[in-house]
Amino acid sequence: xxxxxxxxxxxxxxxxxxxxxxxxxxxxxxxxxxxxxxxxxxxxxxxxxxxxxxxxxxxxxxxxxxxxxxxxxxxxxxxxxxxxxxxxxxxxxxxxxxxxxxxxxxxxxxxxxxxxxxxxxxxxxxxxxxxxxxxxxxxxxxxxxxxxxxxxxxxxxxxxxxxxxxxxxxxxxxxxxxxxxxxxxxxxxxxxxxxxxxxxxxxxxxxxxxxxxxxxxxxxxxxxxxxxxxxxxxxxxxxxxxxxxxxxxxxxxxxxxxxxxxxxxxxxxxxxxxxxxxxxxxxxxxxxxxxxxxxxxxxxxxxxxxxxxxxxxxxxxxxxxx
Length: 322
Fold this sequence. Notes:
By secondary structure, this protein is α+β, with helices and mostly antiparallel strands. It has two helices and 21 strands. It has one domain: Neuraminidase, CATH 2.120.10. It is 17% helix and 38% strand. The protein is globular and about 45 Å long.
């Protein structure tokens, strides 16, 4: 009887040991499988994240499209370095040529220079504005020349600017009865490009700029890659090209401000409140050095480019989409 009891006890202990071992094996295997599953998901997620990079909004938003030419006029050799244009109406455009103290009246319909208006000695003339038949021409040293419709010099205005500023932009802001002039360069190490106003009633320039472009602004500092290269458009690039304003024009309807950056083949657009919006990219082969901008009263954009290997050009542009 004792022997039977002892056998039952041993059998019970053995059964408990077997059950405990099975539970341990099951639990261990489950934990191991769960761990492997988590690891697999982690690796899969890692690969997925790596395969689908997300482009930043900042990079995408600095490019606003590439305008295309609807019509192009090749300009004569005497306008090889055309540096400023102004709308006259009836298919006529007033132009200035770098280094010549002469206004050229170009007829787009006849495709030729209709007349010349000499007004002064040779110099680095960069911009022109038409104010009701009176012309204003700016020299890069900031001197402003007021000229009659017949080409007679009325007055030379000294604005207190210098060749360091390198003034190239000049635009008639009719709504505010003023001219807008802007720096292409400025003092070494400057962090902004300033734009000034010349009041047409008092014939005085305000000492403080009416607005400035910050060079570290995310849009302004965005490196706008030419669309034709096939590279990413609007890619943010450290140490990108610094904007060098070569002309300015205000859209007659939207009041947005278009600023040509000739050396970099692009046009910066600001809102009417002077906030950078985006760049337009310009075809480098067709327009290697955009120096002139103007709008017709209907809002048609015209640009002019200096000639380098080909003749200088005037073009009517079609604003495209991204």
